[in-house]
Amino acid sequence: MKLALLLAPLALACPPPFNDFRFLGNETVSTETLVRQALAEPQFGSIDGVSDARNPSQRWARNPMTGATVVEYCFANKWVKRTYADILGRGWMKWFNKIRNPSQANGHSLIVRPAIPLVENRKEQYCYLTDGNGPNDSGAWNNAFPKSILIIKHWDKSDIQATASATVGWNPKDSTNVMLIHPFLLRDRVDELVDTVAHELGHVFGLLHEHQRPDREHYIKYECRKLMGYAECERRTDRKHTMEEICKSSDLGYRYDFPLAAQMSTENRRMVEDGREMEQYRNYPRPYDLHSIMHYSSRQGAADQSSWREAPLVKWKNGGPGYNPPQLITDRDIEPIYPNTEVSDGDADAIRYLYPW
């Protein structure tokens, strides 16, 4: 069963640079336009956490009256709600079943719920004012909702290989907190899409990819050359940078149109925001968690899907804090990383850290 999951057709979640509010479209510019610009302008990048006050994105705000931290959302239009409401709800239930209601006893203040319109209307209301029934129909923003809430949108671009994407944490700019869901898995792999949406909700809450931690070498083995797109990137290099440099740097990964390498990078990213140079800071106050729903499996991003031995990510059988990997590696040293489909104890602890009661 697990092996079948490992070798299932590739379905990536949140490929860079989408986990960044600067890449989400609005009424005047599309997401795809911003993404293409980002790949050509490597000063943009993914947000690397929310607990450091220097980062552009922060934690969702706590209501001082109720003590709860409420992540409210709306659906872009009728079609999006009809298609994705159940999937979003099931994704949130994976978190709720682990952390339960916000309370002192449960140690956290987080809750996710549909936004209540500020203006009453007998008709069902959506993020945008539209009478259309199509997946991408959108008009002007519906002022019955604050622009700071999470917007659930449809994403159907066939040239971007992913199933969902979301911004990281809470972003202060209007209409910039967004989750995009692709219909790729709707027909016969809905459960996998639910798992992906649960992963994306982790980003919405401010969590990062576990496999990008700087201490990962004690737990997993990473080989950039086994990533999908490595050979194509190698042919594109202009000899100003080596593949080793491109694989290490998220900035260079974007510059050379090799986003999967950037998604694996352990380096902090430098970026320009409103004319100011900023660095995106990571914070990992808890032990490495191989079971995190935020950790990629061996198959994700693998150029060769035929065997886990050809995967870019595998785990050390004896890995742990201070573990020194052997120079000569055999099957006795490594094993595959299977997909994590549930919220782990470590994920729950991270929520309690970010959103304490």
Automatic annotation (TrEMBL):
- Write out the entry's keywords from A to Z: Hydrolase, Metal-binding, Metalloprotease, Protease, Zinc
Q: Which cofactor does it need?
A: Zn(2+)
Q: Provide the E.C. number(s) assigned to this enzyme.
A: 3.4.24.-
Domain Peptidase M12A: from-to ranges: 194-234
Q: Which InterPro entries match?
A: MetalloPept_cat_dom_sf, Peptidase_M12A
Quote the cofactor binding remark. Answer: Binds 1 zinc ion per subunit.
| GO BP annotations, alphabetical order | proteolysis
UniProt-listed Pfam families? Astacin
Sample GO molecular function, one term: metalloendopeptidase activity
* UniProt-recorded name of the protein: Metalloendopeptidase
